[in-house]
Sequence to fold (415 residues):
Amino acid sequence: MSLSWESTVIAIISFLILYWFLNKYAFGPLFGVMEKRRQLVLEQMNTADSSRKAAEQQMEEQKAALQQARKEAYEIIEQARTTSSKQADEIVQTAKSEASRLKDDALKDIESEKNKAIAALRSEVGGISVKIASKIIEKQVDEKAQEQLVDQYLKEVGNK
Amino acid sequence: MHEFPVVQLGPLNIDISTVIALFVSVVITMLVARLAVRNLSVTNPGKMQNFLEWVVEFVHGVIASAMPLNRVKPFLSLGLTLIMFIFISNLLGLPFGITFEAHHVNEALGITQELLDEHHGEAHVSFWKSPTADLSVTAGLALIVFVIVHYLGLKQNRKHYLKHYFHPFPIFLPVNIIETISKPVTLALRLFANIYAGEVLISTILMLKWVGIPFLAAWQGFSLFVGGIQAFLFTILTMVYISQAAIHDEADEHH
Fold:
């Protein structure tokens, strides 16, 4: 095997031509496409990442909203419970006071009726006793004396 | 063994088989590459495009193993051209040979009287071989690598590139020069020897006629493997040499 510099030169030239050709017409476009695909994948990954983040955030928000709603519901129930118990207390209280008032009124009425009855009885008794007295007196007192007595009574009444 | 036809073209001795082989492998490489990038698509690559992209990824990995990842890009085309061209060249000599039995002097094809005398009046002239089975061709490739390595070394990394000749002591200059020269020489010889040996063995097995068929099949399979390995080796060694000469990293500072 002998070295021939012509072959070497031809080899170098053909390799350079091949390199130029491949670089320009094959690898250049191919690298471009691969780079484009890389960008595409990167972009899609970024999009996926951001959408995942957005979804996560939304999830978080949803959870917070749910928590809030739950809390509010609990508060409302609690409030209703306290209100209802307060109302019940109030109703009971009112009923109690009403009852006691009614009882007091009734007692007062009884008292006043009693007093009235006592007064009526007293005046009745007075009238009766007067009548009895006058019946008794009628027999003993004459016309003149009775007139005098009536006058005296009238006077007394006028003075009063 | 076969003789290869050499044509006298003025002062030049043109080895026709080498020229044919170079032409054919260049054309096949171009065709393969062009077919692969015919319908380029970002989202839906075809089979050939996928294949070439796999090759690109592979070469990218090979180069990245020799130098930092951010420096790979400019050498990707070179690595790809090298590996594709050498691999296709290596396979070119495997499937068949075109051989003439020449009994007459034919100066146009370089068949001289001396040649005929040497082979007892019957010269086997072959027009077909791997271009890489010719030391001149592999020397050309190694020369390209040599020029690239030292040009890049001088241009991008002058201080460390020049310093490396006097490393670790100035007295080592001859050793370093021998090392520098031995690199392209071994590059050329390794590729040539592997492929040439393969082809020699193929033509030897062919002499066995029918008996040799299983051996031939086995050896052709092995030559396929060797061709791939040698293309890979040439490429990665090129990248390693470029990396050694042209790329100086802070990580290498302690050397």
